Amino acid sequence: MKRIIYREWRIEPGRYWGLLAILSSVVAIGGLAALYTFQQGHWITGMTNSVVWATPHVFAVFLIIAASGALNLATIGTVFGKGAYKPLGRLSGLLAVALLMGGLLVLVLDLGRPDRLIVAMTHYNFRSIFAWNIFLYTGFLILVIAYLWTMAERKGNRYMKPVGVFAMFWRLALTTGTGSIFGFLVARDAYETAILAPMFVIMSFAYGLAIFLLVLMFTFREEGRPIGGTIMRRLSSLLGLFVAAILYFTLVYHLTKVYGAQHYGLVSWILRDGGAYTAFFWFGWVLVGGLMPLGILFHPTLAGDRRWIAAACGLVVTGGLSAMVVIIIGSQAYPMPMFPGHTILESGFFDGVGGAAASYRPAVSEILLGVGGVAVALLITAVGVRVLQFLPESLADEIVDPHVQTARA
Amino acid sequence: MAKADFQVPELQPYAEIPPLQPGTMSHSKPFVAKQEFQAPLGYPGELVDGWERKAIDKMGELLGKYRSLRVYLDSCVKCGSCTDKCHYYLGTKDPNNMPVGRQDLMRKVYRRHFTLAGRLFPKLVGASDFTREVLDEWYSYFHQCSQCRRCSVFCPYGIDTAEISMAAREIMDSIGVGQKYCNEIIGKVYKIGNNLGLPGPALKDTLEGLEEDVFDDTGVSVRYPIDEEGAEILLVTPSADFFAEPHVDGLIGYGKVFHEAGVSWTLSSHASEAANFGLFIGSYDNMRRIAQRIREAAIQLKVKRIVFGECGHAWRVAYSFLNTLAGPWDFLDPRYPVPQHICEFTHDLIRQGRLRFDKSRNDDMVLTFHDSCNVARASRMGERAGGQFEIPRAIIRATCNHFFDMEEETIRDRTFCCGGGGGLLTDDLMELRVKGAMPRIQALNNVIKEKGVTHMAAICAICKSQFTKVLPYYGMEMDQIVSLHQLVSNAIILTGQETGDEEDDEEAEGVSTEAA
Amino acid sequence: VMPVAQVGAGSFVVPGSEAAHLGQCVEPTEQMRRNHMVFIRHQRDDTVHGGIRGTKHSLAGCVACHVAYDDRHRPIPIMADGQFCHACHAYTAVTLDCFQCHAAVPIDDPAALARYAAHGDHPVGVDGYREGEER
Amino acid sequence: MNDRDDATDTGRRRFLGAATGVAAAVLAPGVFLYTSATATPRSEAVTSATRWGMLIDTAKCADGCSACVDACDRENGLTFQPQPEGADDTRWANQQAVWIRKVRLQDDLTGRITNVPMLCQHCEHPPCVDVCPTGASFKRADGVVLVDRHTCIGCRYCMMACPYKARSFIHAKVEHQLTRAPRGKGCVESCTFCVHRLDHGDISTACADACAAEGHQAIVFGDLRDPDSDLNKALRAQPNRQIREDLKLNTGVRYAGI
Amino acid sequence: MSFLSGFYASLFYLAVVVLILGLINKTIQYARAPAPLKIPTTPAPTTRAGVVLRMAREVVFFESLFKGNKWIWIFGWIFHFGLFLVTLRHLRYFLDPVPALIAFIQPFGIYGGMAMVLGLVGLWARRVLVDRVRFITSASDHLMLLLLVMIGVSGLSMTYVVHTDIVALKNFFIGLYSFQVNPLPSDPLLLIHLFLVALLMIIFPYSKLLHAPGMFFSPSRNQVDNPREKRHVAPWADRLEQREL
Ligand code: HEM
Ligand code: HEM
Ligand code: SF4
Ligand code: SF4
Ligand code: SF4
Ligand code: SF4
Ligand code: SF4
Ligand code: SF4
């Protein structure tokens, strides 16, 4: 078998350092925002006792599930033996680690007491999904690093498949776990449903792949490495498939809510009366994150154009963030169903007087923190591909597809 | 396959780090220089009385003269990063060929005589007196280092074993234990002007022959002048370029490039050698004496620029040391760096679109490129760091259609030595040369298998000679190694030359944009 | 800057505090110097999880005994510059976040309240505390 | 460092200023009880032999009364958290800690109005405890659900999980504290069933006492395991239920009249 | 002054003198030995600023080691970074008042201590397990690791198991500045810790620990790659030239 050659990303130092400088400053700004929040307390954010998780969590959860999805390509390559995806394995692993780190960092910096991180690492409540997630996340990091090692080090090659299979299950557990963070919240109408977990899995596939494609196309273009049409087509139709699946699950989700749990109130609120959240749902989640990319990816001509594919990826990411806004913030804004059959006239604690949703307006600091997390992920990726061999030298058709003749014809 | 009375390593699809086999190469020693070869360099002809004391004194002197030696002997923490980086270790499995193992041969003596810990607790820190056995080890293993500096790339302190083996050779020379191959050659340079001992008239003859050949080939009369006073450029090139294959094809190429550039140039019979073996024996004095010949030739021929031909360590001495050893060069044209590499010269022309190529003339070859170690790790081309990697590749891409790099770990600054550098290119070290070439040839073999590579281009006379000799041991052909300027020579379209077909022009256009 | 030579055991006890009149801490001073954090942390877990309010190693107890008073018998926060906890902790660069949550003066400690009442100039209780505040 | 000391100083001055003229008699009742001869601080760990609980009779809860809320605020020093400068008023109102609140309900069918004081329900199977990653949310053996604020990292997952919205996150610096109720920025807190009283042998809560003092007697506090407790008597006397019974959390706080 | 305090006071005076004089001596030796030729390992920076950056990357990230061997790099870097944090934390014993930055960083030093020991164990493991490294290892290399591990373990034991009186300890060291010997707490762990530290300080200038200053003097790393632009001649080589003229 021909071996795939990987090379460090070798764009011109000037441009590389420029890129790092930009990313680092975004990271630094995010860090300052976090420091400011830590020092002042959360009153400077838009979060309240009613909406307790907000913009930072939108970014964090998005990054975390995207991390799990990014690993998908490595699994397809090793576990399912699809040779064409093999060269993508390393980048896929790197992105998984990077996105997860970015997401976790945001999560940690948004804690009320980030200075007690060590407490979080030494005290565990094993009944808590969240605590399990801490293990799932660290385990994931270690596993992916091991997985990368098996891919890169020849001595490890033979463990690649078992580690890959293990990583795949772990990854599914991780997304399921992340989904379950919400899924087990019996308190709230929006969450308490089993379908949230598989929906998160399928979302992770789409978001991870979209980010992967963007990074792949950017790094390859900057350095002039070739990506063949075959692999591009495969990846973009895979993305289309995932996006379609998200739409399907969205539908099922609302149907179970209506028929299964009889939560008409919640469903009609999100679909019709939720104001900004309704807009995020229809415009962001369904249109921008679903229908538009589908239109592009299955379009007879646009689907062949890389710029359009990149645009579709961007749309999927935007749609993903919108979906998170609806799922995370929207569901908290919607009042808790404490007194069925009653209307709340007054309350000393914003219990949804007259059925009103809790208000939330993101503060700049929250957005900066979230974007900082994204920048951390990209920074790790940029450094990773530069110092280690993550990127295949070429994804040209004849390299990727073993049936095409070698260069010397 | 060439016959060998030792085991030729088997090539593997992947690089392996072999387990240690102590002593496998302790028998390997180059011939010792006799009186006649020692004397011209100012060294005693045989082991002197009281050599131990004298060697230690010499070591002390060198410690005071070379910061590198002092710092390197102190700083090593035995981290092990360098242990699997030397091609001689990889090819021979002898632990004394691990860079740090090699250094330790000197370090143990250094510790014994120059450090407090070694004086007080020699056992504890592994210190040892300079005994006859130690001297033998030195002679053996310091002549198993091609001074390629690969180890220094990976050492956290940049410890360069080459500096240490140079110092060791200098110390040994000073007590009368010299190596025949190097010292004989240096003697020839002093007497005749070049390593091969080719006298001026012979050179003239050869060059006239070349002019005829090129004319027959191309129908254009390209000149190969020597000792022409007033020429603009002095070309200093390794003497192998004058006759041996594939070197001479490179020289033909230089001539064609100069011709197309329209500059006047000349060789010199006084400085008819680019290589400077003074480097190998670590002798500043000898290196300087050899380098001075170039200054003398430049003054005598009243040239304005100096250009060096393809040779690795020659380029190191030229690029890194010439200014120090034979400068200042204030009498030359200040618009050009002194000296220039022929690749820089050619590349500049390509960039300016002043050369036209028909790449298809090299279509019978699929190429890879061997970064010669002294070029890669001890010098530079062009204005920017790393130009020494990019410029030759740019030239290949401009002149050939099929080019593939070898594995990343074995090229650029991580390149493997050909196995013949550092004054070891002698038949009495054949076993070492064959085994030491293994890592490079293994990587070559892999691109041959996977990318269909047929030829490897190099820009060093030692590499070319070494590969010509060693490739057959590995079942390859000696002509699979080519000069870089041979590719230029093949592809270049000389002004006024009959062109084959109309496509050429278009091709040439394409090239210049690509190279720009 | 600490006058180096004077720093012996017991020398951080602030004049005017209850401790200043006593010969011994809740454990031998040598022990307290080395291990007070262990004691109070242990007490902390006992109190919070087990509801044990024994005062021997209680933080409220430390504050009550070690807090100093100004000339009007008002307690000076124990983490204020130069006060008992602060003096050492600044010297050894150990930051304490305890008093972000815990009262640094014995406000509603009954013993302290009784003592203030005896002096007749005490703020008296929680209600008084509250009045100046707005919700 | 200086900022903090200044703040403490002004705090003390205010504290002293407000003091004049107030007699020892208005000391909060709990404070006296600590030192009363019968009550001794607990010296052994609580056990599951008791389970603290509460019955709230919404029928007795009066319109316009807020005595329980005020008493809780005072007992636990909830008022010592000044609004930070520049904070938006409405948002700040929703960022402040509330341990007990009054909710006024109207039945959609009958139009009947009910006043429901809501506080932590001290669930037997508390979701807040299940989700807490560090175990900072915990249930004491005697059924009191607490946050160990030494290990709380402020992740707010418990707030997401609590079906009664009983918890508050401390969004800003707390200026003053009471010795009996330490609290500070960055942690989550909720009603403690006035645990400092319980541990000092005073079986009462500030809210129940206040309600009684107002003459409404809407809140009965006591031991659910003790068949003879006032609480159990009251429970037997009246139909009562748990809020969101469907979740099967077996709350310690029961309601009559809804 | 008790015997113990007196002994440790003299030990530390001795250790400091040996450390400082030894290092000055070595530094002078390195600085005075000329580098007659330009031998930077290329590709090398072509400007001074570039060299500073290269050095910084070497010192902070161990760049070359990273290229050379990932395992050694991981353990080596963990060890040194841990050591660095520990050093910062230790400054609180020697500075009064303690700068705010040190006070802030100080708690991380504990994790630094654990990292340091972990890294050392990894490094030691490779000395035993990897045949190539075993070959180049001498007794002193093992002893050096042992010394550092013991310092780390005794320190961590003080942090976690048997606390010592930090205030008295700090007093002791601050007192030494003005030649005043204050009582040193006589906890065995502390005495072991301090004794080993003094030993480390004494052997520092005579051992491979010289790699720390050595790194800055290594010509293959600290030279600017500009031999064609700027003539570089060592004094002794210059004398050679003078003689000829
Ligand atoms: C500028 C500061 C320093 C730099 C850049 C540096 C760098 C390095 C590097 C690159 C290594 C080789 C990798 C390894 O084995 O870990 C090493 C080894 C080592 N360093 Fe340092 N070091 C510094 C300071 C120190 C100091 C202050 C100490 C001692 C207290 C120290 C103790 C050691 C030891 C003991 C080893 C050898 C580990 C072994 O035996 O395996 N280093 N150092
Ligand atoms: C005169 C110099 C030194 C003094 C006075 C000193 C003193 C101490 C003390 C008192 C502790 C306990 C800290 C606590 O209980 O919180 C400690 C811990 C420690 N020491 Fe040292 N030490 C010195 C030098 C060193 C050196 C040179 C090293 C490393 C090579 C070192 C490594 C450690 C480590 C790893 C710990 C445990 C982690 C920590 O608490 O910081 N010490 N040292
Ligand atoms: S300089 Fe080259 S040949 Fe010599 S020890 Fe280093 S790697 Fe080996
Ligand atoms: S890499 Fe350098 S420090 Fe490490 S063993 Fe080799 S020579 Fe010594
Ligand atoms: S004090 Fe009693 S009556 Fe008043 S609001 Fe509270 S529960 Fe109702
Ligand atoms: S009411 Fe909420 S906070 Fe209280 S125990 Fe139940 S779930 Fe936890
Ligand atoms: S906020 Fe505190 S108590 Fe609540 S879940 Fe997080 S750690 Fe636990
Ligand atoms: S029981 Fe205590 S803490 Fe809980 S609401 Fe009543 S007064 Fe507040």
Automatic annotation (TrEMBL), chain A:
Record's subcellular location: Cell membrane
Keyword Membrane annotated: yes
TM region positions: 16-38, 58-79, 91-109, 129-151, 163-187, 193-218, 238-256, 276-296, 308-330, 367-388
Keyword Transmembrane: yes
Mode of membrane association: Multi-pass membrane protein
Keyword terms, alphabetized: Cell membrane, Membrane, Transmembrane, Transmembrane helix
Pfam families (UniProt xref): NrfD (PF03916)
Family affiliation: Belongs to the NrfD family.
Protein name per the record: NrfD/PsrC family molybdoenzyme membrane anchor subunit
TrEMBL record, chain B:
InterPro entries associated with the record: 4Fe4S_Fe-S-bd, 4Fe4S_Fe_S_CS, Helical_ferredxn
Keywords: 4Fe-4S, Electron transport, Iron, Iron-sulfur, Metal-binding, Transport
4Fe-4S ferredoxin-type domain sequence ranges: 67-96
Region annotation (Disordered) ranges: 496-516
Secretion signal span: none
Pfam families: Fer4_8
Domain of life: Bacteria
Keyword Protease: no
Keyword Chloroplast: no
Feature: compositional bias, Acidic residues: 499-509
Protein name in the entry: Sulfate reduction electron transfer complex DsrMKJOP subunit DsrK
Organism: Thioalkalicoccus limnaeus
Encoding gene, per UniProt annotation: dsrK
TrEMBL record, chain D:
Transmembrane spans: 15-34
Pfam families referenced in this protein's UniProt entry, alphabetically: Fer4_11
Keywords: 4Fe-4S, Iron, Iron-sulfur, Membrane, Metal-binding, Transmembrane, Transmembrane helix
4Fe-4S ferredoxin-type domain boundaries: 52-83, 111-142, 143-172
PROSITE patterns: 4FE4S_FER_1 (PS00198), 4FE4S_FER_2 (PS51379), TAT (PS51318)
PANTHER family in alphabetical order: PROTEIN NRFC, PROTEIN NRFC HOMOLOG
NCBIfam families: DsrO
Name of this chain's protein: Sulfate reduction electron transfer complex DsrMKJOP subunit DsrO
Originating organism: Thioalkalicoccus limnaeus
Gene name of the record: dsrO
UniProtKB/TrEMBL annotation, chain E:
Key words, A-Z: Cell membrane, Membrane, Oxidoreductase, Transmembrane, Transmembrane helix
Localization: Cell membrane
Membrane topology classification: Multi-pass membrane protein
Transmembrane helix recorded as keyword: yes
Keyword Membrane applies: yes
UniProt cross-references to InterPro entries, sorted A to Z: NarG-like_domain, NarG-like_sf
Ranges for domain NarG-like: 69-212
Membrane-spanning ranges: 6-24, 71-88, 100-124, 145-169, 189-207
Listed Pfam families: Nitrate_red_gam
Coiled coil (UniProt feature): none
Full protein name: Respiratory nitrate reductase subunit gamma
